[in-house]
Each structure stands twice: as structure tokens, then as C-alpha cells.
């Protein structure tokens, strides 16, 4: 790379770091779960000290004084012709992550068209025993589970058992929201695209405190609406999981049975399951870990988000998710038809807050929207279909470029932000964009280092 482009890349990265400081500092104090911080059940406003207020004002002014980041645009002529070579480079980055000790364990795969270019595990499934992560080690997928709920619903729509505009109140007569008209308006499609109209992450905290899902759904009627149904985006886990109740009403069968029968089994996802008992019954499964001194310590998986299976209940290995990724990129029309995929990936609501997320998002995303169980990004001019997930002790990311049928998945068993930057590094290399070391890993080259990359919260 010539000296002039390197200076420009360094300038862009420096601006990204400066912009990320206030947001990342605030995010560091949050407990990451299956989605961003839950809405308070009491609605009480948090008091803020005068000193904190002055600091926030100063930070805001500082951000406004910085120039806007110039997001590059993909040149189709610069897109890699040898995807396998890009996968080999990604493999080298995994070596660096492994040597750094920055994760307890991680499994990753890179896929082009219907071919798996790379599948690999690094680190350990259980620090206490030293059991290694393999490509068949089962992880929790957290919010990557949402795409399975959307796909199952689509399959039932194709059969005529449901419709995207099926009213939730018709399927679940006891369901109510605070507003009667909104109750009658809410559709299946609204649930799957987070357009229920509730505040972000309503009642997630209570779910984490072991409140039963059924009770929390009943209490949605007590929550003031943030907007009319369909009018705004508000990420949900409780409300999203009502799709499981709708599926039961439509089929007379349990939600997870339907996913197993219609998705897991046809795609050959032999290690994919639902629930904590199934996770712990897997031949090899990744224990969740937290930092302990200079290493890691495993702990018992939390049960909370397993109670909302459509939102966060899937367990799977990276080998399983390779097949899911191939299907989502159009490689299994016998299971997921082209027409269904087009519907699942069609943007339905803007999610502008995503543009202010981690440094790589500020440096690459022009637009951010939500479809049905998937996030849709304009990544430097190219469509990127994406989702991230997080529950206590687990993280997951999946993304692909539909135009090029190139994608990747990463699953790891600790609350480290380090791997999150690898995904945009991979897509930058494939698309021929300026190199930025979004993950902050040690590398032999001198690509710009912007720190630890940062995750995507839970969703």
C-alpha cells in the first residue's frame, strides 16, 4: 500500500477511535445479554449528577466538532477473485487470537457459494479440563436464533398455515397491549421485525430475574407504547417469542419441534438443539467463561433466555451453522426457497442506532435496517446480511454478502469483544476495501490498529 492511502486509512481509523470513546465507555458498564439493556419495568427515570451532565455535554460537543468519517465505496473490480486465499488469511488472524489468549474458545467458518473454505476451532470448550473446541463443539447462539423463528414462520406461510399479516390477537385471543387498537393491529410480521411499538427490550431484566415468560407476556398490557404498532423499531425478546405461541396455535405442535422437523433435520444440522438440557447433553459443548486472573473460569449456563426459545434458544456447532449459512445464501432451495429468502431479507424498518455502534459500523455502514430475524446493512455500498448474539458467557456473529454468496460465522464462549472485529476485517479484505485492524490483533503487517473492535450487543 502506498504512503498516501496509509495516511488516509490512519486518519479514518483515528476518527473512528475518537468517536467510539464516549459510546464504548458507556457500554462497558452494561451487562451484555441476549440483546441490548432491557427496559425498566417501573419506567422510573435515572438521576444524573451535575458533573456527569457536564461531562456528557462536553463529550457531545467534542463529537460534533470532529469531521464526519468518509465511508469508502466498494469497487466491484477490486473484489477478490480468490476467496480461498482470503479464508487462509482469516485463518492466520485466528492464530493471532489463539496466541493472545483473548478468548477462552472460539469456532469459525468461512463459506463461498456452497463450499466451506475454512472451519476451525481454537481454544478450549472447558478451561478446567482443557477440552479443545472443535468444529462440532456446540455453543449457544443467543439472538442468532431469531432467524430460525422467521424462517419457520415463512415455511408455514408457504403452506398456508399462517400469513405474514396474521393478527396476533386472532391466534392468541388472550393477548393484549396497552392500546386496544394496537392489540388488534399487531401482525406476525410486526413481531419478527421488532415493530411491536414497545420500548426496547421490554421486561428483559425481569426475565433475567427468573420471572416466567408467560407472566411477562401477560404484563405487556401494562407497558405504555413507545409508538403505534408498525411505526418504529424496538428490539424485543419477550414479545418476539410470542411467535412460538402463534406457531403452536397454527400447528398444534411445539415450536422447537417444528424447527427441528422443518429446518434442522433437512439441513443436516445434527448437533442443533433447543434448551439448556440439550446443550449439556451434547457430546462436546462449550462452557461459558469469565475472566479469572490471567486465564478463564467456566461457570454454569444461565437458564433465563432459554425460556424465550424463538428469541434466543438455539444451540449449534459451527459445522451446523455452515449448513444454515449455505441455505440462507440460496444453496438449499429445497428447504428455503428463493422467494422465501427474498421475503426474509427484505428491509422493513430503519435501525439508525446501529450506525452509531462499534468503530467498524461507524467506519463502514451507510444504512442499517431490520428485516425478518436479520439485520440488513449497507456496507460500503454492498448489502450485508448480519446478526449478532450475546448471552452470559457466550457471543456469536453471522454475516454474508448475498451478491457474492460469501459469508462467515463465529461462535465463542466468553464475554470478549476481541473476535467481533475479525468479521469486518474479513469482508474488507474480500471486497478490496482499505485495511483496518478492527480487532486490534497483533499482525505482521502494519494495517491500522483501532483497538478492540467492539461487539454488537445482543442483537
TrEMBL record:
Residues 29-44 have a biased composition (Low complexity). Gene3D superfamilies: DD-peptidase/beta-lactamase superfamily (3.40.710.10). Residues 1-25 form the signal peptide. Residues 29-60 are annotated as: Disordered. It comes from the Bacteria. InterPro entries: AmpC-like, Beta-lactam-related, Beta-lactam/transpept-like. Residues 91-417 form the Beta-lactamase-related domain. PANTHER family: BETA-LACTAMASE-RELATED DOMAIN-CONTAINING PROTEIN, D-ALANYL-D-ALANINE-CARBOXYPEPTIDASE/ENDOPEPTIDASE AMPH. This is Beta-lactamase class C.
Amino acid at each position: 500500500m502506498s504512503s498516501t492511502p496509509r495516511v488516509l486509512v490512519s486518519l479514518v481509523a483515528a476518527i473512528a477511535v475518537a468517536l467510539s470513546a464516549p459510546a464504548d465507555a458507556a457500554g462497558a458498564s452494561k451487562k451484555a445479554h441476549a440483546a441490548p439493556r432491557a427496559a425498566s419495568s417501573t419506567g422510573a427515570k435515572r438521576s444524573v449528577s451535575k458533573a456527569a451532565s457536564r461531562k456528557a455535554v462536553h463529550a457531545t460537543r467534542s463529537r460534533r466538532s470532529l469531521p464526519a468519517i468518509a465511508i469508502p465505496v466498494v469497487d466491484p473490480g477490486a473484489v477478490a477473485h480468490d476467496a480461498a486465499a482470503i479464508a487462509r488469511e482469516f485463518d492466520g488472524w485466528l492464530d493471532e487470537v489463539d496466541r493472545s489468549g483473548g478468548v477462552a474458545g472460539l469456532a469459525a467458518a468461512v463459506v463461498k457459494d456452497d463450499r466451506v473454505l475454512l472451519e476451525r476451532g481454537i481454544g478450549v470448550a472447558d478451561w478446567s479440563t482443557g477440552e479443545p473446541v472443535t468444529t462440532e463443539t456446540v455453543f449457544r447462539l443467543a439472538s442468532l436464533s431469531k432467524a430460525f423463528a422467521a424462517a419457520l414462520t415463512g415455511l408455514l406461510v408457504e403452506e398456508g398455515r399462517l400469513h405474514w399479516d396474521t393478527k396476533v390477537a386472532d391466534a392468541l385471543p388472550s393477548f393484549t397491549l396497552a392500546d386496544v387498537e394496537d392489540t388488534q393491529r399487531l401482525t406476525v410480521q410486526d413481531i419478527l421485525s421488532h415493530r411491536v411499538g414497545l420500548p426496547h427490550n421490554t421486561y428483559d431484566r425481569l426475565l433475567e430475574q427468573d420471572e416466567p415468560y408467560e407472566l411477562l407476556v401477560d404484563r405487556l398490557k401494562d407497558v405504555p407504547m413507545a409508538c403505534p404498532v408498525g411505526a418504529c423499531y424496538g428490539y424485543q425478546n419477550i414479545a418476539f417469542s410470542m411467535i412460538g405461541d402463534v406457531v403452536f396455535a397454527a400447528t398444534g405442535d411445539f415450536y422447537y419441534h417444528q424447527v427441528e422437523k422443518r429446518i434442522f433435520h433437512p439441513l443436516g444440522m445434527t448437533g442443533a438443539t433447543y434448551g439448556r438440557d440439550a446443550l449439556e447433553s451434547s457430546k462436546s459443548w462449550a462452557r461459558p467463561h469469565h475472566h479469572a486472573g490471567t486465564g478463564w473460569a467456566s461457570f454454569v449456563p444461565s437458564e433465563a433466555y432459554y425460556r424465550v426459545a424463538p428469541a434466543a434458544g438455539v444451540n449449534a456447532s459451527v459445522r451446523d451453522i455452515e449448513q444454515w449459512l449455505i441455505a440462507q445464501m440460496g444453496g438449499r432451495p429445497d428447504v428455503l426457497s428463493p422467494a422465501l429468502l427474498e421475503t426474509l431479507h427484505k428491509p422493513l424498518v430503519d435501525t439508525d442506532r446501529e450506525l452509531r455502534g462499534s468503530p467498524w459500523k461507524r467506519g463502514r455502514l451507510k444504512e442499517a435496517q431490520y428485516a425478518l430475524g436479520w439485520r440488513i446493512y449497507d456496507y460500503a455500498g454492498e448489502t450485508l446480511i448480519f446478526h449478532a448474539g450475546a448471552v452470559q458467557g457466550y457471543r456469536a456473529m453471522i454475516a454474508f454478502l448475498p451478491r457474492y454468496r460469501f459469508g462467515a460465522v463465529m461462535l465463542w464462549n466468553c464475554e470478549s469483544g476481541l473476535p467481533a472485529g475479525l468479521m469486518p476485517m474479513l469482508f474488507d479484505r474480500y471486497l478490496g476495501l482499505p485495511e483496518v485492524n478492527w480487532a486490534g490483533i497483533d499482525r505482521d503487517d502494519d494495517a491500522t490498529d483501532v483497538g478492540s473492535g467492539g461487539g454488537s450487543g445482543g442483537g
